[in-house]
Amino acid sequence: MTETIEGGTFGENRLDRTAQLNDFLRGVEQRAYVTARAMTRDGEESMDIVQDTMLRFVRRYSRKPEVEWRPLFFRILINRIRDHQRRSSVRGRVMSWFRHPDSVDPVDATPAPRGSDPAVAAQGLDAMQALEAAVQTLPVRQREAFVLRCLEGMDVAQTAASMGCSPGTVKTHYSRALSALRGRLGEYQDE
Amino acid sequence: MSDIDKKQIESRSKAIHDEAVAALEPQVRARLAEGRQRALAGSRRLPLNDWLLPAGAIGAAMLAGIVFLSSEHTTEYADLVAADDGVTDMELILVAGDLDMLSDLDFFLWLDTEPDSG
Q1: What global pTM score does this model have?
Q2: Which of A58, A64, B3, B77 suits A75 as a labelling partner, its CA being 20 to 30 A distant?
């Protein structure tokens, strides 16, 4: 009889934990996707990153206390985005080796639909695209601090846990990010 | 940079982000939900891991018990076998190291049973 009760409790705990995980992931998945897209500017890659993040999170951290889930989830997300950025950087370097010095890169030659200058982009694109473009101009650590602190609404401690650095470093990066974005998003502040 | 400027940038950026989340296409939402279900399907298998350690410990204990009991049984069996005359004879033959006796074992066994054999 005792075994049946214990077995039932275990089964209920399992269901509870799965339900909690489902609620948590449902609450963060869309924001995580938009965040990843803001940092990579690649929708398809962002989808892969978020799906992989959910998988890794459930495998590694689902038994951690629920209060720790959010920083842990975004820590995985940030690491996956860093991996993507490293791969992109290596790919870019490799492609540049194979490119003939005199040849014209067709991508470079194509008129840019999204101006590389965030101020120009802000005139013709919607606000999110302008924000993405502005965020892209930030150094990596400033970008992470801005996205986690501002867009995801994390406090300093959570941001530090997600970035794997000290709270003081977060404050420095965040402050610099806001200063850098001030001019680039100026036109959107008054809307 | 003033605090007002910071607040403006923060609030505007957050609003833009929230709007982008709200405006996500249904197919994007559906793919994210699929990814979530795949991840959770993995979590449903996790309880097996919860049981793996205790089950392994219990299995190891049972195996140790079986080995222990079987070794006791083997000792008892060995004692019984040792009591058997035929085997004792075989041991005597082997201890003596005279392999010629093996070629006519029946003869020597009969000889041993004879009262006058020696």
Answers
A1: 0.61
A2: B3
